[in-house]
Amino acid sequence: MAALILEGVTKIYPTRTQPLPVLRGIDLRMESGNRVAVIGPSGSGKSTLLNIVGGMDQPSSGRVLLNGEDPAQLNPAALARFRGRNIGFVFQDHHLLPQCNVLENVLIPVLAEGRVREDDLRHATELLERVGLAARSRHLPGELSGGERQRTAIARALIRHPVLVLADEPTGNLDATSAEQVRDLLFRTTDAFGTMLILVTHNERLAASAERVFRLEEGRLSPVTT
Ligand SMILES: Nc1ncnc2c1ncn2[C@@H]1O[C@H](COP(=O)(O)OP(=O)(O)OP(=O)(O)O)[C@@H](O)[C@H]1O
Ligand SMILES: [Mg+2]
What we know:
It is a single chain. 34% of the residues lie in helices and 26% in strands. Strand 8 and strand 9 (220-223) form a beta hairpin. The strands form 2 sheets. The chain has a 6-stranded mixed β-sheet, sandwiched between helices. A 3-stranded antiparallel β-sheet has the order 2-1-4, covered by helices on one side. It has a single domain, classed as P-loop containing nucleotide triphosphate hydrolases (Rossmann fold), CATH 3.40.50.300. The protein contains 7 helices and 9 strands. It is of the alpha/beta class. Bound molecules: adenosine-5'-triphosphate and magnesium ion. Magnesium ion binds at residues 46-47, 168.
């Protein structure tokens, strides 16, 4: 069973004036299939927290364990492999490659690791069906709606069977209906694969559909009862 453990994670950014404490001791435990939503004011450290969980940044103290491994202990090459194998990212701006079509974009994490096999192609096609984009697989990102781009980004995040998906305001640029569709898809696809999901959002209504909702404020996570 996959597990994510955060123990006493702090982050203090050095700045030109005085050090800026952003995370003041974050504890969290998740297992396969768990969904967590994180809300909180702008600047409260939500992206900082996701970056640390995703191994893109290191905590000032405390640790992150994903299936028993601490990304902060890995060298850059091992960290890149660890991330590719275990974590899928969905950002507010989809970060799709404009010159690659939908199918190619979904396969980029596979290409980053080696060549695309028959199995990968089948999985990509299946994921595009799941997110309702089978008919758009040859479109370029510029030929998609905002919601379709985010759905492509979800398929891309799942292509390598990650144990954890980190979504940083994936619906931030979408209208209410598209936002709910993207949320539903994130939930359904992560459910189908037993993937853990951390969803950062400004939208309390979207957040409330996760089993556990936390507010990040003044460097701490507190449960929100809905
Ligand atoms: N590299 C950095 N150096 C110094 N301060 C930083 C750095 N990155 C972020 N910060 C500060 O840390 C705080 C938290 O930033 P973060 O991006 O995590 O907030 P957030 O909760 O994701 O906000 P938003 O909802 O606006 O996306 C902010 O006050 C920001 O200015
Ligand atoms: Mg942010």
